[in-house]
Prior knowledge:
2 strands
Amino acid sequence: MSNDRVRDRDAPPGPxxxxxxxxxxxxxxxxxxxxxxxxxxxxxxxxPFPDDSQFGVARWATAxxxxxxxxxxxxxxxxxxxxxxxxxxxxxxxxxxxxxxLVGALAWAIPGFAAIGTALVLGWVExxxxxxxxxxxxxxxxxxxxxxxxxxxPEELIFRGYLFRNLNAAMAAWLALVAxxxxxxxxxxxxxxxxxxxxxxxxxxxxxxxxxVVLGCLRVVTGNVWTCIGFHAVFQVTAQAVLGGxxxxxxxxxxxxxxxxxxxxxxxxxxxILLWRRDGNWRERVADPVT
Length: 291
């Protein structure tokens, strides 16, 4: 046997070939799936239900459909495109996820409710319940469920879970953060353009991109998608409860009240850092191992 063959036999095996689809294809496939889900399938699901009230059958049908479709879609992409385990997305179980979720919720609630309280104390606005107290409590509980199923869980799983994880394996966290925020801004503003026309493009693109940046920062700081879900849920529940006019009526300077909803986007990441007691890894790529 030649010396070359002996050396080949004794040499340690090299890294296993990466059998994943290219990064661009993986990202494009999931973005396309999200677009089909929200832009094509949801109108078909909503069409048989004429009830369009805040807690009507149409809202529950679409919310349940979104989560029931988005989770298997991401699971399939993770299994067949990434060829990586689900736990690499950092969406842990309830036992490990309650604290990151609470950190995210408090990251919005502390500066947000402080700003709203300040506006109320200074007399800029007045919040008047639009329904009796008992009905208000029940409606808020229903709204939490709807927001989690329709927006917070599926959107965070796709953008701060799947997309950020794949991007961060190929580039630094800060760059992955910007990239997923740009994708979130494109996807969200397209949804509004289709339903409200081109005049909302600039406003919605800026809103969704900014929200994607803040949520991406929370993902980097804690390394957990549940933080983003908690922040997203509290923001949407508060905004829909107040701005919709069905649970609360805003009296006074509505523009000043709108600025109170911006406070968590300015200070929420700092609150999360203080609660989490450490910052994230912003400059390095995070490997996505097979096991």
